[in-house]
Amino acid sequence: MAEMSWNDFRARRAVLEEVLARAYVDPALALRFDELPGAIQLFGSADNILLALQHRWSNHLAARLDQAVEYGTPVNAAWRELATEQPALRALLDAAAASSLPLRGSQRDEQQMIEAHTTGRVSGHRTYRRTAVLSGGSSR
Which residues have a Cβ under 8 Å from the Cβ of 107 and sit 6 or more positions away? Predict the structure, then answer.
């Protein structure tokens, strides 16, 4: 696969921003990627556009979940806050999930990330390693 140039990066970002602008008006309408000049050519498929948008959501969510664990706040509150701050993105992903198998797979991965934060598997492991290293013990 060829490396992405800065021009490609900017063009892809512009497509994603246009999709989100359309999603503020109508999430279902925003899914008409073939109506965006160059969108399919830049991403290769509608699923790849959706996966790029899911990646954006997941990155923001991961940061929020880490903060929730750090501050002891419920992870579901972090999800709701992000959905409130980015309603167009959340609505678009929800609307697209029914028709995109790759997107549903990525959303299952997101659910696993949420569960890991909820059960403490993420923060507990980090805390254990940090504590063990600081106390001179083994970090396994």
Answer: 54, 93, 97
